[in-house]
Amino acid sequence: MIEEREIVGGIARGLEGYPGALAALSPERIGDLRAQYMAQAARYLDPAGGDRFIDKMPLNIIDLGLIVRLFPGARIILALRHPCDCCLSCFMQSFVANDAMANFHTLEDAAGLYAEVMGLWAEYRRLLPMNVHRIRYEDLVGDLEGEARRLLDFLELEWDERVLEYSRHARERKQITTPSYNQVTEAIYTRARYRWQRYEEQMAPIMPLLAPYIEAFGYGESD
Question: What is the pTM of this model?
Fold first, then answer.
């Protein structure tokens, strides 16, 4: 697995006329860009890790047009959480400042970025042929094995009981490059589900912006 490395984004920024240039890419150019991606990815992969890997960069979602153009057979995992919790969590996180993370200084800006990104996702979904598996955080913490089995089925991988030992694997790692690195060594917990409900007054101004996505992703009043 590649943990939050900006490989796809770097390739996108290096393409003159992006994203409009995607439609005119020749087979040779696609091959060159694919090779460029794989060469960079190899820097972060275990050579003995098999013939499949996951590129876990959250903002790869904004470059799905490029991903599908280079790797039309790629399997896309859409990892969801309640939109309010996504925005609140990003607002509460101490990120290293960059162009994307600058959107998390206020709840309003966080919600604005969320709406733009998920609006773009909806357009990608409408226009592009993609093989997508959707998994919700709330469902995962409620039924880890069931959700993990469904995910592995989607990836056409055999079930392995070691999947459930994620916290031990995390503790054995030398480095985990994600802002929530300290949480992946913990046992599954549910205390963060619907955390936003403790801040309903503060969240109220951004609810109209998030409401379409709350509905689209299957969250409702009962949640």
Answer: 0.86
